[in-house]
């Protein structure tokens, strides 16, 4: 079972007992967190899509630690002008452990087979080519 959930503005594919690094969360280390914006849910082949989110579904997680990522160096320069800027940045992250996926009020399941597409008739093809020729001649 896995889910695609939106955490701090980013989408993550999560499953039980998975450790994920997300952008810094305000919760304390060791506290429990629940994410309600579950976009997709897969339960052993049964796929449930949200529009945009699945009502009643949530992902439970525990905050393990707060840490910083690797340093990124930003260097700007304009030649022959004497302009140089050197900047560094370290992104703050939170490591969370996914404890479970709760799927109580699931919506409709996605269809596995798409409806067959209607084939184009000769008249549709001729009409489409006439439209494109008209627009090309107008330009």
Automatic annotation (TrEMBL):
Output the Pfam families linked to this UniProt entry.
Answer: Ribosomal_L21p
Name of the gene this protein is made from: rplU
For this entry, the protein name equals: Large ribosomal subunit protein bL21
> Which biological process, per GO, is one annotated for this protein?
translation
Concerning InterPro entries, the annotation shows: bL21-like, bL21-like_sf, Ribosomal_bL21, Ribosomal_bL21_CS
Q: Where is this region: Disordered?
A: 105-139
- Name the residue ranges with Basic and acidic residues bias: 111-120
The family this protein is said to belong to: Belongs to the bacterial ribosomal protein bL21 family.
Q: Give the organism's phylogenetic lineage.
A: Bacteria, Pseudomonadati, Bacteroidota, Flavobacteriia, Flavobacteriales
- What does the subunit section of this Swiss-Prot or TrEMBL entry state? Part of the 50S ribosomal subunit. Contacts protein L20.
Q: Which GO terms describe its cellular component?
A: cytoplasm; ribonucleoprotein complex; ribosome
């Amino acid at each position: 079972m896995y889910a695609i959930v939106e955490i701090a503005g980013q989408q993550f594919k999560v499953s039980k007992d998975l450790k994920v690094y997300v952008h810094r969360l305000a919760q304390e280390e060791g506290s429990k967190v629940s994410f309600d914006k579950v976009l997709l849910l897969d339960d052993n082949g049964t796929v449930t899509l949200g529009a945009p989110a699945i009502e009643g579904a949530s992902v439970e997680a525990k905050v393990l630690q707060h840490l910083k990522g690797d340093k990124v160096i930003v260097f700007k320069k304009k030649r022959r002008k004497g302009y140089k800027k050197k900047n560094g940045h370290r992104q703050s992250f939170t490591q969370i452990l996914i404890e479970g996926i709760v799927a109580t009020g699931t919506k409709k399941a996605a269809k596995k087979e798409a409806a067959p597409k209607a084939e184009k008739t000769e008249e549709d093809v001729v009409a489409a080519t006439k439209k494109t020729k008209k627009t090309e001649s107008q330009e």
